[in-house]
Design a protein that fits this description.
The structure is a homodimer of 338-residue chains. By secondary structure, the first copy, chain A, is α/β, with parallel strands linked by helices. Helices cover 33% and strands 19% of the residues of chain A. A 6-stranded parallel beta sheet of chain A has the order 3-2-1-4-5-6, sandwiched between helices. In chain A, strand 4, helix 2 and strand 5 form a beta-alpha-beta unit.
């Protein structure tokens, strides 16, 4: 599938959906829309993903695409009205829309009418199936190793670690699958349920259901976590995934040098060992799991310091750790399978 | 307001919404519908609430009412088609419907059409406002003491304790309010948001918003908790309320002799001290709060053994405890205000 990705004013540092698609999806990205970086290229900013030109608006896309993907996920998931013209341009040209916002474009009358007129599909990725229910508390019955990526914060590498681990496992011939739980993961895998868009009562049930759906064909199931137990807004989502998944092990993901909760400068990150203790204690109430490995994002640190950061982090969590993007995920896979 | 309460096959032990309304609301309950107990009375089963006849179906209600209230909340919140005739009878007579199920009667075409025809209102209590968003992590800024009832399980007395504590505080002249977070609490107070019906991302934000709305007029804010951090399906809701409320203290509610999670016989209740430790650790990651008091439901135990159960429970949580229904909530209030 050929796609354009909308990431106005946010690429690359606040466009984690765009980066995720560029890095892990099978889609061919024809262009990235960011009106503040017109004329530049993806590779000017991010080196280890597929390259694409950065353009000002949808009308400048040089070739046909199959869809326009909304590649940013602002806090709250709201819609920015300045994106409307790009979406309209896409629809007028017959391109589908893939939307990960909480704001459903299907319910936007102007947009959905235009989609109908031009025979386009709108996929509101965050709209949950309407037959969800509560969990049975039985995900631990599946005949596969289940690991869950948990974090010290939002945007701490849970999605990235999940897909890096998937690739490493598959490279070793292991039947593995990622259970995506966020808009980016769902956009990458073209399936799954965005758990933070599910009503709270059914969030754990949604995770349990996804695990059971893929358990028969996989020996390793990597559940993508969300948020953090220390996050003032998203900790409920984190807990629902933890207890819905009933994992065998946890991978704690952390962004090096992060000091406060992202977007909540008044709330400091607790010490790392508070996270391991609380995650293990909380999971133990329903189905015990230990932090078996750690992933740390050292992207903004020079190599030597990154190695020190990894070693310090491994000591803090008392488990093997690495930066799965900078180095690779073998250490994490070995710890998970031990 | 005069109401009838539907509680077919569930009264009284599985009809906690019905009991809550009978005990704490200002509504005049004209009848309870339970086809398995026709001809009996509420007082045959529950002594300390308003009395009413138990009847077979809506057509037998002897006087006019203002509304039919769905007074049961099965796991999953589904709709039982055998209730349809009662709802239709109510609407045909011009009575409103108050519905706490996840199944929205407003979206049921037959029911909503009938409501329109007879000029009746349907209040789907669990339908959240559509302008919710994520929490700011600032509920601890309010100029009031905020306490949260947390539990060892569902149906462990969080709602009951909240309203008993409210009454005791008001009796002492304290400006106090309950923040209801479940269908029963919202039905009792005629306001509030049913948090388990809110999408996970916004659950903490909903609690924060409700606290800020009542903070100016109250010195004591009692937040009704939901579920339990040890619950395989609802722990996410529990965590969202804990971190959204940023309370000054926690009241741990427990049903005496409960051994397994209600509805999940394969999952044992952890020891009490695991709850206090985990609740305190989890709250401490965002905004520290201790378990300052305990409430234990000893309804099914004889008096002498109940007193022992209370003493044992106080020792287990290392804080003052009582059964606020059997005795009263003064001990809890004193601990909260200390």
């Amino acid at each position: 599938m050929r796609i354009a990705i909308l990431a106005h004013e946010q690429f690359p540092n606040h466009a984690k959906t765009a980066i995720g698609i560029l890095r892990y999806s099978d889609h061919n990205v024809v262009a990235v829309l960011d009106r503040t970086k017109t004329g530049e290229r993806v590779c000017d900013y991010v080196s280890d993903v597929q390259d694409a030109p950065i353009i000002e608006e949808m009308s400048q896309v040089s070739s046909e695409v199959d869809a326009l993907s909304i590649g940013i996920a602002p806090i709250g998931g709201g819609f920015d009205s300045t994106w409307r013209s790009d979406i309209q341009d896409a629809l007028v040209n017959g391109y589908d829309i893939i939307n990960g916002l909480h704001y459903f474009l299907e319910d936007d009358k102007r947009i959905s009418r235009l989609a109908d007129e031009h025979n386009c599909e709108i996929w509101d990725v965050r709209k949950p199936p309407d037959d969800l229910t509560v969990s049975d508390g039985t995900a631990d019955n599946v005949d596969a190793t289940v690991v869950l990526t948990v974090g010290t914060d939002c945007s701490s590498g849970k999605m990235t670690t999940s897909f890096e681990l998937l690739q490493t496992a598959r490279d070793q011939g292991i039947d593995a699958a990622v259970i995506p739980t966020g808009q980016t993961g769902v956009m990458i895998t073209d399936r799954g349920i965005v758990v933070d868009g599910v009503i709270s009562d059914f969030a754990a049930g949604a995770v349990e259901r996804m695990i059971k759906q893929v358990a028969a064909e996989n020996d390793l199931i990597i559940v993508e976590g969300q948020g953090s137990i220390a996050h003032p807004a998203y900790s409920g989502v984190t807990t629902s995934i933890l207890h819905g998944a009933m994992p065998d092990g946890l991978i704690l993901c952390h962004a090096a040098n992060r000091e406060a909760i992202r977007g909540y400068d008044h709330i400091s990150l607790p010490p790392i060992d508070e996270y391991t203790r609380t995650y293990e204690q909380l999971s133990g109430l329903v189905s015990p799991a230990k932090v078996v490995a750690g992933a740390i994002n050292t992207h903004h640190i020079e190599e030597a310091k990154a190695r020190t950061a990894v070693a310090d982090y491994a000591a803090a969590i008392d488990a093997p750790a690495t930066d799965p993007v900078r180095f690779d995920a073998t250490k994490i896979l070995n710890a998970v399978l031990k």
